[in-house]
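User: tokens in, sequence out, please.
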């Protein structure tokens, strides 16, 4: 389980009820205790940027909800999958 510990959003333009949006997500930072994701949300069709955001996530045990650390092998796999995100 990966609880969100912090959220930061910069609203640039409003979406409307009938808008279709495109959400782009990047894993920017990763270590045993946290993951930082960045987001950009665009209006599909016009590619107008609607907002930018980032979240700080932790890792917790599914059974207890207590924060924990990611195993080294999980970090290695996530780092491999998201290598281009952090450049």
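Assistant: Sequence out:
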């Amino acid at each position: 389980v990966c609880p969100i510990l912090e959220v930061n959003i910069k609203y640039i333009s409003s979406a409307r009820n009938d808008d279709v949006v495109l959400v782009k997500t990047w894993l920017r930072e990763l270590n045993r205790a946290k993951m930082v994701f960045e987001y950009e949300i665009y209006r599909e069709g016009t590619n107008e940027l609607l907002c930018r955001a980032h979240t700080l996530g932790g890792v917790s045990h599914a059974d207890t909800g207590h924060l924990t650390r990611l195993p080294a092998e999980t970090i290695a796999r996530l780092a491999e999958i998201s290598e281009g995100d952090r450049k």
